[in-house]
Amino acid sequence: MTRTRRPQSTVSRTHGAARRRTMNGVRIPDELLLLADTQDGLVTRRQAAACGMSPAAIRHALGAGGHWQRLAAGIYATFTGRLTPRHRVRAALLRGGAAAMISGGHACRAYGLRYVPDDAPLICLVPAGAQPAAMAFAEFRRAAALPASRWIDGVPVAPPARAVIDTCRGRFPLRAVRALLCEAVQSGLTTRELLADAVGDARWQGSALVRLALGDVRAGCRSAPECELRDLVRTSLVLDEPLWNRPLPEEADAQLTPDAHWRDARVVVEVDSSEWHRLGDGPERTERRRAHYAALGWTVVPVSPWRLRHEPRTVLAEIEAAVQSGHRRHAGRRCDVTAGSM
């Protein structure tokens, strides 16, 4: 189990004023309050009983005269006020048991990934023999062999590859799957090999989409629009597969690494997403790079994600024309060189 530094609990600072050691004559054990401080202010019915609270005292704490609130069956918040997504994460871990860990979208967000679907469920991994009671806001998945967890901000989470694959499992479209897998690899959080290992030979709903997206990542695609460009190129009857995100042969220092290029035709295709090309100093960088392409004799075909999705036939025709023109132009030059050497 890999642990990062666990920050000092903020529960007492956040909820201390709202919690009470005594509620209408019912004393809350100090031991239980200290335990709650390590669990984001939550306790279970079993923990409360182990600390000496009777069922009547628990009912009183949850009643009108108390200051507790029920988060789920047998899981209580020892404070008044708003419950947050973190409290649901902690409740799922308490329900899952000591070996439980968070996976899926919540784990991906903890790692800093941005392309996580908004409706990705809270997933909690538990041992194969565990039988946690269902929760309305969490999905429990039993695993024959739990991966080694990592600790982020005091919460055990599954490794990045497992978290990403669990997020993609069975509910999201190909574009969302591609975006998340590409981001996970490009950010350096995981590798395509680890993602493939996390999928394995499993056949669950959505596994075919994950394998398709992994094929794009293996080819060199770095974003969902690049994957869609690859889909489009592969429908062509005249285009070979280009090189994806590979340095140009003239660029030993890899300063020019286009999204896709055909070396024989000396044609580059760049996907002009607003994230990379139109914000900050993006326009100036794009202009300098394309001037560099031109100086080296490369033709650049810029393509926007919007056109890929709404004008695919037109985009493909433009790329085909550029590549065919490049082949003719450079074939002619080769003939001239050959004739001049005779």
Automatic annotation (TrEMBL):
Which InterPro entries does the entry mention?
A: Restrct_endonuc-II-like
Disordered: annotated span = 1-22
Q: Which SUPFAM superfamilies does this chain map to?
A: Restriction endonuclease-like (SSF52980)
Source superkingdom: Bacteria
Q: What is this protein called?
A: DUF559 domain-containing protein
Biological source species: Jiangella mangrovi
